[in-house]
């Protein structure tokens, strides 16, 4: 192993290292595609165990200061740690070039400038400069170290900031700067070359300050740093930029490639939507409202680009590899895009035998070990899927009515079920356009199904009726979707009854087709049946509902309510909350990686012709439906877990209950576990906020905080700026509620809808994303009806996704459900700024302790036979809100942020 101690004799090889993996060769306008290279970072063999995957920062030992009294100065030593990048390590020698080598040789690699908290007698900043010299590469902790010496005057005062000038020709990722007088600057940031950006980078110490408490010597730097992040709203962004600005979603379509790929702009009066990060790309010549696209990853501010410094199977790079390697390979080998599965046994072969594909490179095998298996021979490799846990435990679970309902409480989308509070069920859509508004699910149908239990009136009064209601959201798109090839759509309602055992029983499914030019409204109610024909029609109706629920889950519960709505919070935080602001430091762990993942989604997932449009029933209308859901349903004040449950009638406020709410369904695994996690998050936020804001007036007088919240409401979510439900921000309690909601959405909410995707939808009959054919009894020809009667299984398979659609989705869900080995779990890592404040450190330790107890509670609940919605023969235990996990597809684990 290399000796990382200071060597007093500097050889040429020491000052001019051959390998320089801390620099990147990215001069393009967009992020370099090499950032997503599948190759793994090479490290020498060592017998010393490294814990680099468990931490993000490197601790550096203290060095005693040397006093030089006759100069009235103190020698302060500094150690800078630099994170190697992936692509430069792969590229090998000579990356930095001759200029960078000379800088190392002369000891002029980095210019650092300490800044005092105090101003001098003339009101000017007090600073001390020094160059840092390259010292060593520590393979154990995988960082480069640089060292410098400052001669600091005794009257300099407390050090509060440091300015950095990168003399290299490439950008570098700074992890931290540690001075031997117990002062730390936690950077975790890219520093551009001075040739790309001549402005010196500003870093502040780990001590947090409200704006009103900012030391005089740092006030101008505090504002200057935020100004550099806001930009001027002009020009195309470069990969070295750190600019956070807003734009509408005008880059999902690609009219330059084909007018059939043009899509409406999301954001504005016609299609309300949250804002994304502005990239400034030129507008299309064929559609002046659309921004041009690129094959490279879209711009994100440099500090949001983690691909160059994370492990090879980091979520963004693994996702990029699936989108740009696995999916095109599958498209090439499966030429018949409409070919379905002829038998259910054919589906099983995906897990037993896999799909032969051309051999991918070794890097892809490293990133996707679950998918890409060893070569069968010299010509082929195999993409072979792991059997999802739901099917591994019970092969026929997807077929059963009780599992159909149970998964609405303990499955992938526990956000849609709602209490029935009005009867009869009525549509709010214009009946002149969409037909009679009354539901065809009548009192007689319901009472026939619950005969022996109670009347409909009793069921409503006792809160026993629940439903999935996708009627009004989907009905406007039914006729338009049916004009697309290979898909169909209905408006749907699914009614369920809460049995005395606490489980749900399905009562009826209503499917509706609105009137069209040549056909009247078609509406039919299906119920569980005891005859062969009725039973198969019921199974087909469930398949259609599941395709609706899969679409709603992916567009709304997952993309919109976590990824999409978080981006404006991230942008506003960087524009208005200083590095040293305590609320920024509280929220930052919940923002990491999200903008980079979102940019990849715009690149190849939610874009025109992307995976979502090609594999989900609404096709090209998918994101318009998402916009409608934002317009009609999304409210910030309903995004906290208790408020969400109350808004759906799944809970009522009850100060005597443990979490301040009483659940309508007592055994609701998502809500039961989620409320414990919500309480822990809110208690942590309460301790944190009350420490920095001991008085209410401090909240309202915080100018950065006020500007932050105002911009979130009026710009980031500007299409809803006039809504009366936005919380005020005047007191500690207001702030606690706001930050708790943001933290919950980025952690618990996202985990609940993401990390179970492969377990629940990896076997697509359990959650089909596509219904390709209409119901057999909807205006059938004699031939169509007879075909259904003769082979109903064929009808179900023809309605299901095609082979290419299913395999694409399965490949994607495998990656989306995976945890990276260096995942950052909630409560697992204390941020340096929190550790620097004893009161906050204690509060965080209490937070971590409550999460460890939550793990034990969830384990005990999953073996409780009385809890039949999470414990029973063949059931997958509900573990999605267990805070911690190992790597891979585990069906558990709550990361701090939306990291995949």
Automatic annotation (TrEMBL):
Main location: plastid
Basic and acidic residues: compositionally biased ranges: 219-228
Keywords: Chloroplast, Dioxygenase, Fatty acid biosynthesis, Fatty acid metabolism, Iron, Lipid biosynthesis, Lipid metabolism, Metal-binding, Oxidoreductase, Oxylipin biosynthesis, Plastid, Transit peptide
Subcellular location, record wording: Plastid, Chloroplast
Biological process per Gene Ontology, one example term: oxylipin biosynthetic process
EC number: 1.13.11.-
Coiled-coil boundaries: none
Pfam families: Lipoxygenase (PF00305), PLAT (PF01477)
Chain segments carrying region Disordered: 212-239, 270-289
Keyword Chloroplast: yes
GO molecular function, one term: metal ion binding
UniProt xrefs under PROSITE patterns: LIPOXYGENASE_1 (PS00711), LIPOXYGENASE_2 (PS00081), LIPOXYGENASE_3 (PS51393), PLAT (PS50095)
Domain Lipoxygenase: 208-900
Stored InterPro entries: LipOase, LipOase_C, LipOase_C_sf, LipOase_CS, LipOase_Fe_BS, LipOase_plant, Lipoxygenase_dom_3, PLAT/LH2_dom
Pathway linked to the protein: Lipid metabolism; oxylipin biosynthesis
Limits of the PLAT domain: 87-205
EC top class named in words: oxidoreductase
Cofactor(s) recorded in Swiss-Prot or TrEMBL: Fe cation
CC terms in the record's Gene Ontology section: chloroplast
Role: Plant lipoxygenase may be involved in a number of diverse aspects of plant physiology including growth and development, pest resistance, and senescence or responses to wounding.
Family from the record: Belongs to the lipoxygenase family.
Name of the protein in question: Lipoxygenase
